[in-house]
Amino acid sequence: MTETRRPTRRGRQAAADDALMRRSLELSDLYLGGLAQPESVRWVSNQRSRWGSCTPGDRTIRVSERLKRMPDWVVDYVLVHELAHLLEPQHDEKFWAWVSHYPLTEKAKGYLMGWADANNVSRPVD
Ligand SMILES: [Zn+2]
Asked: Who has greater pLDDT, 121 or 94?
């Protein structure tokens, strides 16, 4: 049976979210000892002031679709950051110790700061 229909918008969205979830699990294995196990990781368009957010209670992560236009290593940083919140909810020393396992952390933070500055986004990093 031949499938000739183009993927629906919903179908593309689901595929993009699946890819994001797979990438998150890879990053967890690489940099967080596999300890961060999200329930879901999704792209969202309604996140105006933040790059990503994490709800540790139900282990859900959302990342801003604005990141789709940025390099993969910047997206990876945001994912590692949100995944690390599954281990440490606050931005304390223990949290940054996990995040710093990702080698491009400082570079990615600089990229996002520069982007925010150039685009007049006031409070981009969470
Ligand atoms: Zn954070």
From this structure: 94
With a CB cutoff of 8 Å and minimum separation 6, the contacts of 124 are 49, 50, 51, 112, 113, 115, 116
Reference 74, options 116, 96, 106, 26; nearest CA is: 106
> What's the mean pLDDT in 34-38?
97
- Ligand 1 centroid to 93 CA: how many Å? 12
In the predicted model, is pLDDT for residue 125 greater than 80? no
Please determine, for residue 123, whether its predicted confidence score (pLDDT) is greater than 70: no
CA of 14 to the centre of ligand 1 (A): 25
Ligand 1: centre distance to CA 95 (Å):
9
What domains lie within the chain, and their CATH numbers?
9-118 (3.30.2010.10)
Q: Which residues pair with 61 in a beta bridge?
A: 41, 54
Distance 71 CA to ligand 1 centre (A): 20
In whole angstroms, give the CA distance from residue 108 to residue 79: 11
Q: pTM value?
A: 0.90
Q: How far apart are CA 22 and CA 41, in angstroms?
A: 9
